[in-house]
From TrEMBL:
This is CPXCG motif-containing cysteine-rich protein. It comes from the Bacteria. The lineage of its organism: Bacteria, Pseudomonadati, Bacteroidota, Flavobacteriia, Flavobacteriales. Pfam families: Zn_ribbon_21.
């Protein structure tokens, strides 16, 4: 597991998430630890190193 810090797309606070590097491609929803809004998280790992991270609002 690897801690990754980023800005919430709703409240703009810096938050962290634990990322599982054992799964190379992941897309999932996780709530912001500050404002509790749902964030769509997309991550990619190559050789256990983070190569892509994206956190988006699920609102259109």
């Amino acid at each position: 597991m690897e801690a990754h810090y980023f800005t919430c797309p709703y409240c703009w606070e810096t938050i962290s998430m634990l990322l599982d590097s054992s799964v190379s491609n992941q897309v999932y929803i996780e709530d912001c630890e500050v404002c509790c809004n749902p964030i769509q998280v997309s991550v990619k790992f190559l050789n256990l190193k983070l190569t892509h991270f994206q956190a988006d609002s699920i609102e259109q």
